[in-house]
Amino acid sequence: MFQAILNQELNPVKESKISLETEMTSQDTIALSSVEVFSPSLDKYTFGSTIKYISEKDLEIFQGLPLSDFLQQRTGLFLRQYGSGMLSSLTMRGTSAGHNAVFWNGLPINSPSLGQSDFSILPVGGFDHAAIYFGSGGALYGTDAIGGAVHLINKLNFDEGHQVKIASVFGSFGRWNQQVEYSFSGKKLSTRTRIYRNFSENDFLFRNITKMGTPIERQNQVRLEQVGVMQDLAWSVNPKNLISTSIWWNETNREIQPIMGSNTNDFQSDRNLRWVLDYFLFGKNKIWNVKSGLVRDDQTFNGSFNQTIQYFLSGDMDWEINSLWNSKSGIRITEIQGNLSTYQAKESRIELYQSTNFRPSERLSFSVNLRQLVFEGNLAPFTPSIGGEWEVWRNDSHQIHFTSNLARSFKVPTLNDRFWIPGGNPELQSEKSWSGESSLNYLFKKGDFELSQKITVYRMKVDNWIIWLPKGNVWSPENIREVHNSGLEYGLGANQKAGEWDLNMNVNYAKTRAINQTVISKNDRSKGNQLPFTPLHKFQSIIMVGKGTFSTFLNYQRVGERFSGTDGSGRLEPYQLWDVGGNYNWSIRNLDVNLGFQINNLFNTDYMVMPLRAMPGRNYQLNLNVKL
After folding, report:
1. How many Å apart are CA 291 and CA 285, to the nearest integer?
2. Which pLDDT tens digit goes with each residue over 100-135?
3. In the chain, what are the domains?
4. Distances (CA, A) of 20 to 57, 333, 347
5. Are 19 and 95 within 8 A, CB to CB?
6. 30-60: per-residue pLDDT in tens?
7. Nearest-CA neighbor of 69 among 407, 365, 58, 483?
8. Which residues lie closer than 8 Å to 45 by C-beta, 6 or more apart?
9. Is this model's pTM higher than 0.85 or not?
């Protein structure tokens, strides 16, 4: 959520510092002289949950690229990519794209008509860092957070003076991305302006398997251009009052990549306006926050215009009752307007939430979260969660933590599900889920060597899953599917300092089973099969070596087989990709320069993420970042 800079006169604020590499849980209260709140306040109420934090440094060489590229290459997550730069939807723990909530500075930005976010039009550079919350988070975040939640966060600093940053990316297939940023911060005021333009001809070579002899062809009808402006402002009125606002305009125009064998000429334009305003009041043991915001999405596809607007107003109080208890109570009101090509709709939502932490000892902590949402007089499923963390053992070199979580989540039917003409079904019920997970965390430190490991097992049941089915000549959605999800996630981080050399290795592995339990018709053979486009296995690792101002990396990912049919038919081959790159930093007086290179798909692998959607072969990228 919002990044606040607190004056040293304020009460100490708990800060979670869990990196993308180590992912170890640390939720201690630390007294700091001058504090930046690097993590959402809800982190305080996530005991037992699995979280990955993505830092500014992690994102550095992906500036100007879509967030989907980073998530696919550097995490254990899988995204369904419909071509290079095309629609990219996230699946977490075997759920669908609409089962993952996405937030920008605390505002939910999933489309209320489609129920999801397109990660290909969320540029890295439109935010400073991110956090990924795995598993059911409905009690903390509301609708859509069945599989998980992604938070995109802007961070402002105080008392740093003037700064200018210029970033450029040059790459294969006509890629040319530029970003300019100016910021100023004093003791009371902090402001930043960011402007970017990302462009790619995207005309890569591919093997057309739909033609005799599978000839090599050049992809056409795939040009894309993206422009955006972001303005951040924070005002520390006095030690007890802080006001912050951010506004983000993002426009993406792209030719839609046709499937192999097709000659379509589709064009899509997305325009997104997001604005948030926060007011913080810091009391002796309490932090009050009032948040308002706007999310407007305009989409034009082949001349057909669709628009949704969401207005938000929320307020909450975070209260440190004593050394054992913390409490957060709040309310969020949402007004939605939908002006779609086939219908118009309005909807009002109100939700109440309550979170409580209890720490009976230094080694034992619990979180209880409750949420109730009402939309247009309909009650969404009541959503509780409970989680705990136990420090099993600790000495000078070893730490072992055990964490566990049990949660319920839900998803309100989208506007399209209920109101699309023809076929919408206003009688749909909310999708709902129960899930549980347990993790074992191990940390070893000795001298200049550090090793962290985390293994998580989970189970989930999703009921009332909405699918669209044919009814004569019209397709209509029904609450008809039940899905059981289970799996295992493993993460490893190792760091070794050897003289002037720094050696790092990180590993992510996910085994995901998402099995349909429902027979839809007499001829339906989908029961007992893995959901379409859901890999059973995904593995990703990266090795980094650095000395002084130079560093290099080797990244590897393997995605297992997927099936396009609900009955296990339409097998998509597994694939593996290698990426290599390096960075060099140097300073000249007040000028800091970072030069980086990257070779993606090093061995020119021919692969598809989705059926008949070509993906690029070997390609190159050069990054130049200047700060003064």
Report:
1. 20
2. 999 999 999 999 999 999 999 999 988 999 999 999
3. 5-627 (2.40.170.20)
4. 10, 33, 38
5. no
6. 443 333 433 346 678 999 999 999 998 898 8
7. 58
8. 140, 326, 328, 355, 356, 357, 367, 369
9. yes
